[in-house]
Amino acid sequence: MNDSDFYQFSTFTVLALLLAFYGGTYLLTLLIKNKKESTDAFMVSNHNLGFGLGAASMTATWIWAASFYAAATSGYTYGISGPLHYGLWGALMILFIYPFGRRFRKLAPNAHTLGELIHARHGASSQLILASSNVLGSIISLMVNFTASGALVSVLSPLSFQAGVIIAGVGVLAYTLWSGFRASVLTDFAQLMAMMAIAILIIPAVLFSLGGPGVLSEGMALLTPEQADLFSTEAILNQGAPFFVAVLAYAIGNQTISQRLFAVREDHIKPTFITATIGYGAIVIGLGMIGLMALMTGLEPIDGDMNNLIPQMVSLYLSPVFIALFFILVIGSLSSTADSDLCALSAIVMADVYGKNIARGRPDPTRMLFIGRLTMIVATLIGVVLASLSMDILIMLVFVGALWGAIVFPVIASCFWNRVTNAAFTSAVIAGLLMFCVARFELLNMAGVTGLLFELLASIGGGVVIGLMAFGFFGRRAGVIVGILGAVVLAWFAVGFLRDYTILLASLTAYGVSTLVCVTISLMSSHRFEFASIGQSVGNYDDTTELPTK
To answer: Does the keyword Signal apply (predicted)?
Structure first.
């Protein structure tokens, strides 16, 4: 990449900006630092997080560095509908978590992780499947965010990529290590306020530096018919639908989201999720418009790298003051997600690994805190090393996405249907993951009967996604009817067509197969589970010396 195409700060200026940001967040956390931290406060703020902090933290966590670049890439690639597909579906997924989240919280009001709930429902094997997927996902997220920091620092300053990675890792760890989740939530609030203020300034500044709305009107001639279409089929099939499916899996399977669900006060869950939905959508769609502006002005990304779009636009059209604000915007977004990943990892190791499996319901709170902080240090080191090596994480990311997709129905069904067994849960996840891999990597030729089979399975998966949404808001009957109708309609359109869209086919297959296996094995069992026992098995760690075991 030709660095001269980007505006560059001096080494002193970049270090000053980073010191101001991370130094400020560290000083902010000193306001809540206690001489002796509580284990429950360290993991979930004693389940007493207020509406404002909860909504801000949910929004900031959902917005990570990749959101900016991916939203801009979507706008540049798919035109007018691109940013809408990226931002709108991500925002709606926050809203769609709400009805299921209420059920999770009702079953286990004192839980710290979703894995604790699943452990009480099914036992260790199902819990560890969920915990393992979360560990992999959070490590990958850490790596991506530290990589974004390294890339940004290397582009906008003489400092090296590795220097940017290390500074971000040390900075995030420094303000998160002592107070854990409480520090993450408090800094999320400050970071989100800064991100919103900066986004409100930068987006119109780029627009008017280009020459105003009139220039964009003239740029419409540069768009293809698909890019100019608000309801572009290509955008829906290649961007909107796969993202809709993937984000639902992320929402149900990721600890950073469920951790906030268990932390916020129960009576604040609904307004928290609604506010986070609106906040995420507004910021991400707005930033995606920068990619659309680049497309409509005929800008070519340097070296063909789409991740250069936003830095390139900012460097070309804004003053150094706005470039500095953009720098803080990206650093704030990646830090808010990275600290959430550290807190998620520490909670998983503290509660799922140590509390439920090593200590077997008799954990030592002091030792738990030590383990949580040690986990943060080790996770930061791993994230920094992987980011510094610039490894290709696509394969690992594909597997994590598949695992989360295969987990969605078994997790939700386990919390509503008393016939789901541990065997049904584990078998469903494994079968869904295997069939996803067959479709995603085309291990079989997707033609003839094989292609037809996978399209029908994917249609069932699509019906499951739509049915779960209806079920969450309108009840079981509506969910079943909408799900069946959705699967039938999708099958009508999918046969002979969906096999050409591998990512969407594979993602929906994971949903369809895991659902079929889970339902079939559950119906074969005469077992009936008593949901009231979950709340008795999952409790706080500082209020009791011994937690009941299953």
So the answer is: no
